[in-house]
Write a structure and sequence with these properties.
Chain lengths: 571, 112
């Protein structure tokens, strides 16, 4: 069965392969039709079938089995070949194609990693100065803690079954044939072949089970790219609740959260991105292309936002936030940080969204970039106009929340909408986030940075907007769905929303949105309650009043503002 | 000896300092304080929640002078610090028991 990432790269490579091999484009992983007699013998990296099954060429830890990049294949006499066969051309082309995709995905991942600094600045700026060291330290430490959990078990349960069982030969993914080793997991509805034997695939994929500690079974260059890229995405989710729970979250409890966060994130990611049951909604229930979430409005942002919601409810509001039920203002201590952080996040999003093609060779990346840019532009305008319409001044913290909301909302639809759609999605996000911030404040949920509104609410909006605004011009064969009726009507079966003729996609997106909200909230609520029994989730009243920097971290963000007496006699 | 404490608007500090310097009065202690009298603050909305800025920043000047100069200094400060709008501040004049120069140990009017 084909899945999102695989199909993208597959299409890119297939076009070239088809040209050379003379077999017209196929979109799903069917049995490879016998090549016409005149077609040349394709190298093994095209079929991902190792010539000697006893010595599999994949997982490939050096890239040596995906074409060549230096001297002509097998020629020991130097750079200039005496003759040039078609296979030599394949070798270089295939290697370069995969190389471009590697470099693109890795560099985009570097941008996403840098978003951690953006989150740190935004959250620390929005909190009070007495908690600066603690807030920034949470955003710092979540990176190593989250990475550790992802390495130990998260990647395995999320992507261990990326191909939903062993696959038929074919060119699989933009990151090379080696990723096909991600073929082991568990789910409901175990598939059987004609003879009644289990194929290893599942009709409703639930969890991956391969790649613990990135062990030898997945020791492949392509898998490493996927691991890194997915890891920095998980980090984004992991850092969102630190904002909703800031200024009263006890450090030890935060640390065990950091090790746990890979669990809910990777489970849900498996269902949407890892070939699991939400992605299979198209194949199983005829609902569009199954759950479509290009870069993670749902997987990353809504999940983070709803975990944050659960956490904010369990941990309770800050002391002094509510007086007689009325929310009190607790102004940001440094709006300059907030704006700087927002720009860093906006910059990182240019890795987040277009990088999710996992293929620099997928030229759709330019649309993804422009759609991301437009949403990030119209959203703060929407927020500012909403504030003005309510007779309020243009609070910079809200404008920044606005831009981030627009970026969150465009994250799912960015590859599938046109620029007008992107602009509208962003504008609506800017309006939505303002109302959402007021809403949660007024119902007694204290969210110091607006994380629930920016990521939770607009994550849902992003997921739903795919079902409305997707134009159908991109995403043919997404999640393995190719419907004859669509091909007949439109020429290809791309991801298509309500406004462009496919209401079933919207239904699926609504299901997806419901799952992330309910699953994310419930599993996080249970975890925070449980973790509170292990180590208290909230600091004492005295600590909260003094500021968490000294008592929790042993260091102050602004020591000059604290009366610290150095005991000179003890020196 | 008299002590003069003057609470003034912050942007008036330079004007007051120069007015005193022109009359030969040098030496003062300045602190950043906040307060209000009849000039009330104003309300702002931060993320939908109202907060009141009621303590306004002010500057407090403290001067120590002999009895003859005190009255003149008070009048100078009042003229220089005045804007005519509410919130200009107040001047307090009080008697001082003793003054000591830390470096030399001088006391009384010699120490001023």
């Amino acid at each position: 069965m084909k899945h999102s990432r695989a199909t993208l790269g597959f299409l890119g490579a297939l076009g070239i392969a088809a040209l050379l091999a003379g077999t017209p484009g196929r979109l799903a992983a069917e049995e490879k039709a016998p090549a016409p007699a005149a077609a040349p013998q394709l190298p093994s990296y095209f079929s991902a079938a190792s010539p000697d099954p006893a010595k599999p060429l994949w997982p490939d830890p050096t890239g040596a089995n995906t074409g060549v990049w230096a001297t002509p294949a097998g020629d020991g006499k130097g750079d200039v070949p005496s003759s040039l066969a078609l296979t030599d051309v394949y070798d270089r082309m295939a290697h370069n194609l995969v190389s471009i995709n590697f470099v693109w995905t890795l560099v985009a991942g570097f941008l996403v990693m840098f978003m951690q600094a953006g989150f740190m600045l935004v959250e620390t700026g929005l909190c009070r100065s007495k908690n600066a060291a603690h807030t920034s330290a949470m955003n710092f430490m979540i990176y190593p803690l989250g990475c550790f959990g992802f390495w130990v078990y998260g990647f395995a349960i999320g992507w261990g079954n990326w191909f939903n069982g062993p696959v038929a030969p074919g060119w699989y993914a933009s990151l090379g044939p080696g990723t096909a080793v991600l073929n082991s997991g568990w789910g409901l509805g175990a598939a059987t072949d004609a003879a009644g034997n289990l194929t290893g695939a599942f009709q409703y994929g639930l969890i991956g089970l391969k790649g613990w500690f990135l062990n030898g079974a997945v020791n492949d260059v392509g898998v490493m790219v996927l691991f890194f890229f997915m890891m920095v995405f998980m980090d984004t989710t992991a850092t969102i609740p630190t904002g909703a729970m800031a200024e009263r979250w006890a450090w030890k409890n935060f640390c065990i959260y950091g090790l746990w966060i890979a669990l809910p994130y990777c489970l849900y990611a498996n269902w949407v991105w890892g070939g699991g049951w939400l992605a299979q909604g198209g194949l199983n229930w005829g609902l569009g292309h199954g759950a479509v979430d290009f870069a993670g409005s749902g997987v990353v942002h809504a999940m983070g936002g709803f975990i944050g919601l659960a956490g904010a409810i369990v941990i309770g509001p800050r002391i002094g936030k509510y007086v007689n039920g009325k929310p009190q203002a607790m102004p940001a201590h440094n709006l300059v940080f907030v704006i700087a952080g927002t720009f860093i996040l906006a910059f990182g999003w240019f890795g987040f969204n277009p990088g999710s093609t996992l293929a620099g060779t997928d030229l759709r990346i330019s649309f993804v970039v422009v759609n991301t840019l437009l949403a990030s532009a119209t959203a703060p305008i929407g927020a500012m106009l909403t504030l003005g319409w309510k007779g309020m001044k243009p609070d910079p913290s809200m404008l920044c929340n606005g831009m981030l909301a627009g970026l969150v909302a465009i994250t799912a639809p960015c590859a599938f909408v046109n620029p007008m759609g992107a602009a509208i999605i962003g504008f609506v996000a800017g309006i939505l986030v303002v109302y959402s911030v007021f809403f949660f404040d007024n119902i007694g949920i204290d969210d110091p940075v607006g994380a629930i509104s920016v990521h939770g609410m607009n994550g849902l909006w992003g997921v739903i907007s795919v079902g409305i605004f997707a134009t159908g011009e991109y995403g043919a064969g997404w999640n393995g769905v190719v419907r004859d009726a669509m091909v007949k009507a439109y020429g290809s079966d791309g991801v298509r929303g309500l406004l462009y003729g496919d209401p079933s996609q919207l239904v699926m997106q609504l299901i997806d949105a419901s799952v992330v909200a309910i699953f994310g909230f419930c599993i996080a609520y249970a975890w925070f309650k449980l973790s509170d029994l292990i180590t208290p989730i909230r600091v004492s009243e005295e600590t909260e009043a003094e500021g968490l920097d000294g008592p929790e971290m042993g260091a102050h963000g602004y020591p000059d503002m604290v009366s610290i007496h150095v005991n000179r006699a003890a020196a | 000896m008299k002590k003069i404490e003057a609470i003034i608007k912050p942007f008036k500090l330079d004007e007051v300092k120069e007015a005193l310097a022109r009359e030969g009065i040098q030496g003062m202690t300045v602190s950043e304080v906040k307060g209000f009298g009849r000039q009330k603050g104003h309300a702002e909305l931060y993320r939908g929640a109202e907060y009141v800025v009621d303590f306004l920043p002010k500057i407090k000047i403290e001067l120590l002078l002999d009895d003859a100069s005190a009255a003149k200094a008070a009048a100078l400060i009042q003229t220089a610090a005045r804007t005519g709008r509410i919130g200009d501040g107040k001047i307090f004049v009080s008697p001082v028991e003793d003054v000591i120069r830390i470096r030399t140990g001088e006391r009384g009017e010699q120490a001023i």
